[in-house]
Amino acid sequence: MKTSIFTTSFQRGKPRLKAALVFGAIAFVIAFAAAVNTGIVGELLRPAMSEAVLVGLWGRFAVALVVGILCFGGCYGLLGLPHRVQSWSVWAGLALSALLLFYSFDLSYEFIERKLPFLLTQGAFTTIYVSAISIVLAFTFAMLGATAKLSGIAILEGVGAFYTSYFRGVPLLVQLFLIYLGLPQIGLVIDPVPAAIAALSLVYGAYMTEIFRSGIQSIPRGQWEAADALGLQRMVTFKKVILPQAMRVIVPPTGNQFISMLKDSSLVSVVGVWDIMFIARTQGRADFKILEMLITASIIYWLLSVVLEMVQHRIEAHYSKSVTR
Amino acid sequence: MRSIIKKTLICAGLMAAAISTSSQAGKTLDAVLADKMLVVGTNSDYRPNAFLGDRNELEGFDIDVSREVAKRLGVDVKFVTPGWEVMTAGRWQGRWHMVVGSMTPTTKRAEVLDFPATYYFIPAGVAVHKNSSAKSIADLNGKVFGVVSTSTYHRYLEHNLKIDAVGTPPFEYQIKPQEIRLYGDINEFDDLSLGEGVRLDAVIQSVSVINQAVSKGLPVKMLGDPVFYEPLAIAIDKGDAEFGKKVHAIIEDMKSDGTLVGLSRKWHGVDYVTVK
C-alpha cells in the first residue's frame, strides 16, 4: 500500500463523482475569472449564441459553465481509469497542450529543421559533457564538504563552513565571471569550458554539501550508538550503517540539484562556450528568429531533464528497498 | 582533467615569464609566429560581419578579413567568441591575439586596447516599425530607443560618442530620446517588430544590419539618412607595437590591392572601405 494523503483513490462510486465535481467547479471559477468567453473557447461556442450575448455577463457565465462541465466530464472519465494510466494520460495531455501552445506561435519549422542538427551535435553535446563532469565533481566536493563538516575536527569544520557559506552565497553568474576574468589577474589563464565546470561544480557542491550533511544527520543517534555497542569502528559505521540509510533522504534533493545544474549550465554561454543556449541565441539572433531557437532549446533541456528524472527514480527505488513493504 | 591542470600550470609559468619580460615588444607576434596560429576573437551573431552560417561555421566580412590577415602572416587562423563585454574590456592575457569584430575605436576603448588598423567605415542608421508614423528623424525626439548595451549607438544616444580614428566624418547629435533601452542577449529588432511604441519606437544599428533585418522579412524600415559614420578597427591588446605595425601594414596592403573592397562588396553589397 502506497503512502498518500487520501486513503481512497477516487476511482469509483461517490468519491469519484465528488472529485470530478470539485475539478469541474475549479475549472468553472478559473474560466469565469479569466473571461474565456472573449478568447478561442468563446469562438467555439459562437454557433450557439449571438455575438452580443457572448461578450456579456451571461455569455461569460455560460462559457465558463460549459468549460466546467467539460472538465467535470473529462475528469470523471479519467478517474475511472487505472491509477497509472490516469497519471500518465494527464501528463501526456498537459505536455500536448504545452506543445500546442508553442505550435500556435506560428514558427518557421523549416528554420528549426535546418538548425536542429547543429544544436544537437554541438550544443546539446557540450551541455551534456559540461554537466556530466560538473555533476561528478560537485558530488565529490559535496562528499568532502559534508565529511569535513561532520568530522568533529574544528579546522575541517571551519573549511567546510566557509566553503558552503561563500559558494552558496554568491550568484553562479558572478562566480563564473570571477573565475574566468579574475583568475587570469593572478596568472591562471583558464579556458571557458574549465572555468564553467569549476563554477558549476563548486557552487552546486556547496548546495549539496548541506543536503548530504542534513541527510546524514537525519539518521537517529541510536543507530550510531547501536553500532558502537556492536563494536564497529566509526568509519565502518558511517559507510555501512549510516550512509545507506541517509542515501534515501539524500537522493531526491540531489536529483533536484542535478536537474537544476543541467539548466544552469546555460549560463556558461556568456563566456563563449558553445552550449545549447549559445547556439540557440546565436543562430536565432543572426537570422532574427530567436523564438524558434528558444522553444527548440527549451524542449531539448526538458527532454534531457526527463532522462535525469528517470535516473533519479531508479536510484531512489534502490535505496528505498528497506522501507518498502 | 590531468591535462587541464597541466595546461594551467604551463599557462601560469608562461604568464610569470611573460610578466617578467613584458617590457619587450613583439610577444604577441612571437606567439603567433611560433604556434603558426592566429587566434581571433569575434562575434557570433552579427550578420553580415560574423555569424554562424548554414554550414554551422562562422562566416561573414570580419571572418574573411581575419582569414586574409592570417594568410598574409603565413599562419593558420582560429576563432573564439568570448562575448562583447569581455573583448572590449582588454587584458586578454594571450587568450586571443586580436579582435576583428567590427569594433569602433572610441577614446574610452583606446585606454585599454590598441587599434592598429581601421579596415572599413559603416553608416549607422535609425530603424522604425514599417507602420511608424514618424516621417523624419526629428519626429523621434522624446521616443523610446533600443540599442545594444555599450555600443557606439548607445554612446551616440547619450551624446557621448568620441571616436579617435583618423578620417572619421564629423557628425552631430540629432536625437534626444525619452528613454534608452539596452539590449544584450535579446535582439532589439524583435522588440521593434512588435509594433510602433509597443516596447520601442526606434532602434539605432549599422545600416547593413538594418538591411539584413528588412531582407529577412522583419516589419521594419530605415528612416532618413545615416546619423553618423563610424570607423571599424582591428583591436589588439596593449603593449605590442610591433604586432600592431604588422597588422597595419597588412590591412594597408589589402586596401591598396582591392582585397578589402572586394570582401566589402561580397558581404555588404557596397564598398564601405573607401572613405567618401
Q: Total number of helical segments of chain B?
A: 10
Oligomer: heterodimer
Domain count of chain B: the total is 2
CATH superfamily of the largest domain in chain A: MetI-like
Biggest pleated-sheet summary of chain B? 8 strands, mixed
Structural class of chain B: alpha/beta
Shape of chain A: flat
What is the fold named in CATH at topology level of the largest domain in chain B? D-Maltodextrin-Binding Protein, domain 2
Question: In a few lines, what is going on in this structure?
Answer:
The complex is a heterodimer of chains A (325) and B (276). Chain A is mostly helical and 325 residues long.
Describe this structure in words.
The complex is a heterodimer of chains A (325) and B (276). By secondary structure, chain A is mainly α. Chain A folds into two domains: 13-103, no CATH class; 109-323, Orthogonal Bundle (MetI-like fold). Chain A is 77% helix and 0% strand. The N and C termini of chain A lie close together (8 Å). Chain B is α/β, with parallel strands linked by helices and 276 residues long. In chain B, 35% of the residues lie in helices and 26% in strands. Chain B is built from ten helices and eleven strands. Chain B has helices at 2-20, 27-35, 61-73, 84-88, 107-110, 152-157, 188-193, 207-215, 241-256, 259-268; strands at residues 37-41, 45-46, 50-52, 58-59, 76-80, 98-103, 113-129, 144-148, 179-183, 202-206, 220-237. In chain B, the strands form two sheets. In chain B, strands 5-1-6-11-7-10-8-9 form an eight-stranded mixed sheet, with helices on both faces. A three-stranded antiparallel sheet of chain B has the order 2-3-4, with helices on one face. In chain B, a hairpin with a 3-residue loop joins strand 2 (45-46) and strand 3 (50-52). Chain B is globular and about 60 Å long. The A-B interface holds A 114, 118, 122, 180-181, 184-185, 187-192, 194, 270-272, 274, 278-279, 281-288, 290-291 and B 4, 7-8, 11-12, 15-16, 19, 44-47, 51-52, 54, 56, 80-83, 86, 89, 91, 93-95, 185-187, 189-190, 212-213, 216, 218.
